[in-house]
């Protein structure tokens, strides 16, 4: 049993192509474009999540983190077989114990480190993709075997099933979202302002810093050749400047900042509790949505306003 979102659609098709009979795959999805797509692709669709849970031997919980607790606790858990296997692709709700899981159920994590479209396309190319795997609750004594079998069936083992845990996956995921990328956003924002004060134009800055897609290419080369060694693709001036500059910076304050976020916001559940309080508000349409408020506040920066101006000029 699976929903048919980005990951659900990819994994369901990969399972079927790996030999799982179509009659053994049920897509539990509300009536929307995703369910129509599942039907067009020949899958059996059940709009009643409880009915789907009643017949499921293995349930792939592939819905957004903020949706999982209500859906699982209210609609799935009361109908789930006592020996059903629960498969998660994100450790968030299991690590923070937001799901009311019976002790008789196996809980395994099979978490592709790719977006759904890549999970599908790489499978079709026979290449596979890396995947985090763990047994979070081993009621049957065979939970890890099941996790590895699922990983094999969706195509992950061709690239590597990496032993992990819900804690590790959650820690790295939330840390990247709340420590690493916020600092990158701030670095770009402040660098933009400094260069703007030095007389650089909006267009030049936007293209030099990100719109040329050069940063995306750098990260792609880093994935292929190594985070440090990809620097050899840059000019000698660039290599020297980046290496010398990085070694001259004292990362002590940044390291302490990162530790504070990891231990005092992520792992202790502070963020999870904070986010739970505003989950309902995320369904609000318009300016009262807390996420939209954050977008507006962030886009009010000099960088944000400059990009809006540049994109408007390009559209003319």
TrEMBL record:
Entries under InterPro entries matching the protein: 6-PGluconate_DH-like_C_sf, KARI, KARI_C, KARI_N, NAD(P)-bd_dom_sf
UniProt KW keywords: Amino-acid biosynthesis, Branched-chain amino acid biosynthesis, Oxidoreductase
One function term, GO molecular function aspect: ketol-acid reductoisomerase activity
GO biological process, one term: L-valine biosynthetic process
Pathway: Amino-acid biosynthesis; L-valine biosynthesis; L-valine from pyruvate: step 2/4; Amino-acid biosynthesis; L-isoleucine biosynthesis; L-isoleucine from 2-oxobutanoate: step 2/4
Keyword Oxidoreductase (UniProt): yes
Domain of life: Eukaryota
Ranges for domain KARI N-terminal Rossmann: 1-164
Pfam family, one: KARI_C
Ranges in coiled-coil conformation: none
Family: Belongs to the ketol-acid reductoisomerase family.
Name of the protein in question: Acetohydroxy-acid reductoisomerase
UniProt source species: Clathrus columnatus
């Amino acid at each position: 049993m699976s929903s048919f979102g980005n990951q659900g659609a990819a994994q369901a098709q990969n399972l079927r192509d790996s030999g799982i009979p179509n009659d053994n795959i049920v897509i539990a999805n509300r009536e929307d474009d995703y369910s129509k797509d599942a039907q067009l692709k020949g899958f059996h669709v059940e709009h009643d999540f409880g009915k789907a849970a009643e017949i499921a031997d293995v349930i792939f919980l592939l819905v957004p983190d903020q949706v999982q607790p209500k859906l699982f606790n209210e609609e799935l858990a009361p109908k789930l077989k006592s020996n059903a296997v629960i498969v998660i692709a994100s450790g968030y709700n299991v690590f923070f114990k937001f799901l009311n899981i019976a002790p008789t159920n196996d809980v395994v994590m099979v978490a592709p480190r790719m977006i759904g479209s890549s999970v599908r396309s790489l499978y079709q190319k026979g290449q596979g993709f890396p995947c985090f795997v763990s047994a979070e609750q081993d009621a049957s004594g065979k939970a890890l075997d099941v996790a590895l079998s699922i990983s094999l069936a969706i195509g992950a083992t061709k690239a590597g099933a990496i032993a992990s845990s819900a804690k590790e996956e959650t820690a790295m995921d939330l840390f990247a979202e709340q420590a690493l990328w916020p600092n990158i956003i701030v670095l770009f924002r402040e660098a933009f302002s400094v260069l703007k004060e030095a007389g650089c134009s909006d267009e030049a800055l936007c293209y030099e810093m990100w719109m040329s897609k050069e940063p995306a290419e750098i990260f792609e080369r880093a994935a292929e050749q190594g985070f440090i060694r990809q620097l050899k693709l840059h000019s000698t001036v660039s290599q020297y400047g980046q290496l010398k500059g990085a070694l001259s910076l004292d990362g002590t304050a940044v390291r302490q900042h990162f530790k504070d976020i990891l231990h005092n916001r992520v792992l202790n559940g502070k963020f999870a509790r904070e986010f739970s309080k505003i989950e309902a508000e995320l369904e609000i349409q318009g300016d009262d949505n807390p996420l939209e408020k954050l977008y507006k506040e962030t886009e009010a920066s000099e960088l944000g306003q400059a990009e809006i101006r540049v994109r408007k000029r390009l559209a003319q």
